[in-house]
């Protein structure tokens, strides 16, 4: 879009079709302007729609910040398992151990983890902030299990890779 169409001497370049390039550039500029106009109208319509929903008191609508309608949390359903925990890491300090099955990781649960992508997002968004975690832990060989609540604070610079210091696999 910004490449000159003339030579340093002021003559049209012979290696390109100057007329076609000018026509194409004009089309691109029009399309960009059309896109801006359409996006502006969509934004205005969305604000009006959400204002109308707020007036009606509809709670299940998509929020202005883009939060998707909340799905109910499946109680006690694990979606990931802790594969390894590094000594003196944030995960180790929080009390996570190998074999813990993660039921809830902040706002992430079995119904919304999206192949653990949401878990990574929660970790990135909560660096140096505590995250509540609920895990199911095998207590003994008799298959007894306990639901354990932990607080994990992801952070950089703890002496190892990542912000957690553990490896989590999907179930």
TrEMBL record:
This is Probable 26S proteasome regulatory subunit p27. GO terms for cellular component: cytosol; nucleus. Belongs to the proteasome subunit p27 family. InterPro entries: Nas2_N, PDZ_6, PDZ_sf, PSMD9. GO terms for biological process: proteasome regulatory particle assembly. The keyword Chaperone applies. One of its GO terms (molecular function) is protein folding chaperone. Keywords: Chaperone. Residues 81-137 form the PDZ domain. Residues 1-51 form the Nas2 N-terminal domain.
């Amino acid at each position: 879009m910004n490449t000159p169409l003339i030579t340093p001497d002021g003559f049209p370049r012979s290696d390109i079709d100057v007329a076609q390039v000018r026509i194409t550039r004009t089309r691109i500029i029009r399309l960009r302007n059309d896109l801006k106009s359409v996006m502006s109208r969509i934004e205005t319509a969305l604000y009006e729609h959400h204002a109308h929903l707020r007036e009606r008191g509809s709670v299940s609508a998509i929020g202005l910040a883009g939060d998707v309608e909340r799905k109910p949390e499946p109680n006690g359903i694990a979606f990931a398992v802790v594969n390894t925990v590094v000594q003196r890491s944030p995960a180790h300090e929080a009390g996570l151990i190998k074999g813990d099955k993660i039921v809830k990781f902040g706002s992430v649960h079995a119904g919304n983890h999206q192949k653990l992508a949401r878990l990574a997002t929660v970790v990135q968004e909560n660096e140096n902030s505590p995250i509540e975690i609920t895990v199911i832990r095998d207590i003994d060989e008799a298959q007894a299990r306990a639901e354990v609540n932990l607080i994990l604070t992801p952070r950089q610079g703890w002496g190892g890779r990542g912000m957690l210091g553990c490896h989590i696999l999907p179930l």
